[in-house]
């Protein structure tokens, strides 16, 4: 198992999405709040560096892959800045050009191989082909699924690919429609298949709904911490 100490909180792009996301300040801020895991988005530039950016374009509308990544944090900088006890979930954003040259995976391997010896790491992606290219690295791999992708398909796919985790959006976990198993049953099956279950973007007030998961990728770190504290405080 990747997460062995109960429900783990992972800071989404550091301290959450929005202004300042995927920056060293945001990542260090999440650590200062007590998080032991953070999530970052990584993609490559025209100069074959890996930088932190969620969207394929920069603030001025230029594609990241077409430029040098000026002003964006490099993955190496994250490794240098974060204490080694902090785990990093590297969400890899492959680009159109990977259909031709498959360059993102080997670039990532060079950096991750050494770093995995000094801190907890996990690689997640919406691109199963990228994950397959990383399978000989010895680092936990997780399949990300988008919004309302059916949870049954997601768990089966991740298990069939021999991955270590399935990362589900909250929209995939909604039960009650009669079209899928209850979330707790899905987690049970995932665990039986050897998968950790990660849920991304729950609101603080939704934490209890996903308490069966192994980890939550959250935007509102203070609010989620407060909610968890309330859940564990005995009623007076």
TrEMBL record:
CDD domains in the record: GDPD
Pfam families on file: GDPD
Domain GP-PDE intervals: 7-236
PROSITE patterns (UniProt xref): GP_PDE
Coiled coil (residue ranges): none
InterPro entries named in the record: GP_PDE_dom, PLC-like_Pdiesterase_TIM-brl
Protein's recorded name: GP-PDE domain-containing protein
Source organism of the structure: Actinocorallia longicatena
Origin organism lineage: Bacteria, Bacillati, Actinomycetota, Actinomycetes, Streptosporangiales
